[in-house]
Amino acid sequence: MSEPRLDTPLRERAGHALRDTFLQEALTIATTKFIGLRREAFAEFPDGEALRDRAREIKEATLQRLDHYLERLIDNVEGRGGHVHYATTADEARRIVLDIARRAGARMAVKSKSMATEEIHLNEALAAAGVTPVETDLGEYIIQLAHERPSHIIAPAIHKTKGQVAELFARELGRETEPDPEVLTRIARAELREKFLEADLGITGANFGVAETGTIVLVTNEGNGRMVTSLPRVHVAVMGVEKVIPSMSDLAVFLAILAKSATGQKLSVYTSLVDGPRRPGELEGPEEFHLVLLDNGRIGQLAGPLREALACLRCGACLNVCPVYRQIGGHAYGYTYPGPIGILLTAMLNGPESVKDLAHASSLCGACADACPVRIDIPKMLIELRRDVIERRIAPWPERILFGAFARLLQRPVLYWTAARFGRLLQRPLTRGGVIRRVPLFFGDWTRTRDLPPIAARTFQERWADLEREGGR
Amino acid sequence: MDRATFLARIRAEMGRAEGRAPTQPSARPASPRARLEVLRREMSERWRESLARFTLEFERVGGVLHRVTDAGDVPETIAGIARERGMQRVVTWHADALGLDVATALTARGLQASAAPDTEVDGGERGRRRAVAAAADLGVTGVDLAVAETGTLVVVSGAGRPRSASLLPGCHVAVFDRETLVESLTQAGLVLEAWHDGAPPPWRGASINFITGPSRTADIELTLTRGVHGPREVHAVFVERGVTPRRD
After folding, report:
1. Average pLDDT over residues B83-109
2. Would you say residue B109 lies in a domain?
3. In which domain, by residue range, is B230 found?
């Protein structure tokens, strides 16, 4: 059942996805639905466009004084009795969380959906240290039982049928049932309710960290975020440093656009503001609260080419509109973050080498930039990444040679003209009905899934010269 | 890594990123509490419009609104909800936090109702209380803020205000009045500023929750399903003559 991962090239991973007929149908239905819901939500919200601009300005203002806002956040979290930890790498972040788990004597950790903990591969580390991690978002729970990875930022199990989920529950939980989402959800509720009450450790990410108040903000629909932050004795939140925002006034701006962009809801069902550990008089709430501030490649982009990507809210809107994501789904990308923004975040986390193929998994159509609630210019950064991939000479060599030769050709008119004439002769045996369907040797990759337009009988320059001669205006 | 080294790295990278057009975060009110008083006065003149919008949005997200005249009518409404569903066990906020003693009134109506204490209790008692909440069918809470634009109920945790009452039972009933109504998320932002202005009152807990309808998921084939982890049903009881809980 496991999807192809990084040991196979992107082309094969994508091919695998394209041949999966259920996945194709599921992706089309889901992404189309999300696009429609998002459009409706903004259509009846006249302030939306202005708030998107404001949100982006707030993100930029925060990055310009990131040290200041992080210091405010740290001071305020500590002022409420919370502990703050600093992780430069994924490894360091894992060790911090494991250390907290060990001190708490935790045997089980319940988790609310968090891309940051996916990114640092925390579950494997917890399991290896004898702490059972339990994903509690229904979609995440399903893929954890199936030993898979999320295929969409906000709908992680988008690739599974209800039939597959029913089989999975029968196999893993010993609960035979009909493939009815309502019944399956009830089973998951009962299973996970026990875990919430039993777990010693709750682990979350953070949608926002409010500097002026030391508040961690979590947005969920199921209520698992509230469980995880209220029932276990210890709560750990892992937060990328770029998630800090200055104030509650800023939070109101982000809340107004986040859910609308993700699921078309005016607001997600639960927006939970966590102000540290349980206070006297409260019946619930953790005795210990820990905030892990995560760098993992983010700080290096403050002055880097991917800086804009630090404004990302992880809403998933750019995935839904991307013609490439809509065809291949999340797994084919091979890393934690899929879709257009995922390529940039992968480069940020793992270096440009990791996206030498992925940087091209975009048609640069710009739909992602239009959909992005904070208007991140994703195509511009993808082009930059492609340039970087070429300049570092990490592109495959046939591609480097071919495009190098093409570049030289374009710079020399006589050479270009001669090549065009030769090309016209050479293409003759390959052209059928005005298109080239197949070219020989490894160039054949180009025509495997598309036609190559032949070189025109007359070049533009020749036709221009003709027009001038005719004196046509 | 330690704080100083971590922040020093950030400053070094920020230094390389200088020369950008400066932008500003949101303007913050100079004295949020005073600003909130002004807002409350403005809102009190428009509460009918706010309530109409709230009702529309709350029902759109699957909430059920009830209107009663007097605080004394609330227990009968709750008992009615419980009876219709064959529910027996109820947990509620403390009478002071709610503005009325629901537990006694519900017990008199034959339900098994338990109100939260409003003082610190030991770990063993907290564990027992949690088990009661987990076994309850219905949870009764107050409301600290109702946002009309989104149909959202905001509840602040604290002494006598357990988080579990709006989370663990399958059915949540929230009691509110015109005092709590604001129109927009922007206004809610101001309220949050005011709540965090200065030292919190001693009863205030560490959790604020915006609740917009019943718990939901669409994780299996995008089929909308209610009551994943939180309540399947959310009811809001609007008390026309008001309830008077202990607030700031």
Report:
1. 97
2. yes
3. 31-239
Chain B contact for A253 (CB, 8 A cutoff): yes
Backbone angles phi, psi at B133, to 5 degrees: -65, -40
ipTM score of complex = 0.97
Burial class of A405 by CB neighbour count within 10 A (0 to 12, 13 to 18, 19+): exposed
B36 lies in some domain: yes
Number of domains within chain B:
1
B214: pLDDT strictly greater than 60: yes
Q: From the CA of A469, how many Å to the nearest CA of chain B?
A: 52
Domain at B71, CATH number: 3.40.50.10420
B229 vs A: CB within 8 A: yes
Q: What is the pLDDT of residue A450?
A: 80
Residue B205 placed within a domain: yes
- pLDDT value of position A372: 98
User: How far apart are the C-alpha atoms of A358 and A327, rounded to whole Å?
Assistant: 14
Helix or strand run (H / E) with residue B47: helix B47-60
| pTM (predicted TM-score) | 0.92
User: Nearest CA to A236 among A286, A304, A273?
Assistant: A286
Delineate the domains of chain A, giving CATH numbers in brackets. Answer: 1-44+308-395 (1.10.1060), 48-132+196-296 (3.40.50.10420), 412-470 (no CATH)
**Residue B4 maps to a domain:** no
Name the average pLDDT for chain B: 95
8 Å CB contact of A57 and B17 = no
pLDDT, tens digit (0-9, with 9 covering 90-100), for B155-194: 999 999 999 999 999 999 999 999 999 999 999 999 999 9
CB B173 within 8 A of CB B81: yes
Strand partners, A210: A215, A245
Cβ neighbourhood burial of B94 (10 Å; 0-12, 13-18, 19+): buried
Q: How does strand A208-210 pair with strand A215-220?
A: antiparallel
Segments of chain A scoring below 70 in pLDDT: 1-6, 442, 472-473
Tell whether A95 is within 8 A of chain B (Cβ).
no
Q: What distance in Å separates residue A259's CA from the closest CA in chain B?
A: 11
